[in-house]
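Question: I have long wanted to understand how a fold can be written as tokens. Here is the record:
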Amino acid sequence: MALQTVTLVAAILAFAASLIATGVSIYNARFSRFARERWWEKKVEAYSRIIDALANLVYYHEEHLEAEERQISLSERREDIGDYWKKGHAEVKKATAIGAFLISSEAEAAIHKMWKEQGKVVNPTDWYSLIESNYVASRDCLRSLVEAAKKDVQISRQD
């Protein structure tokens, strides 16, 4: 009788241990999924901020190029347009400093390429060529970053 009681208690303890192990496993799976989702959200947030910042830089350069081509003055709007550059430049600089921590190495490389390409092979006293060079570098970076972001956060285009 005592042996049967010990066997029954051991079986109950083994069953309880398996229930606890199952509970811990379910908790770990949910926590792991939660952590992956939070990391994905952080990546999407980082890409969104950088893409928005690059769009600000592109807008800034486009406005200046258009004003030069149409030979119009931006004096009334200079401060507003300058705000686009300030916000965009600061955010892209921050993204450069963060590097591949939140964004892919492909996205990081696109940002570094933009910094190198801006003003490249341009006479620094030629305002139009400088703005055009910066525009092309920013625009190309924006395109590359959007593609890198899609790959990194696995967003496919729904056509």
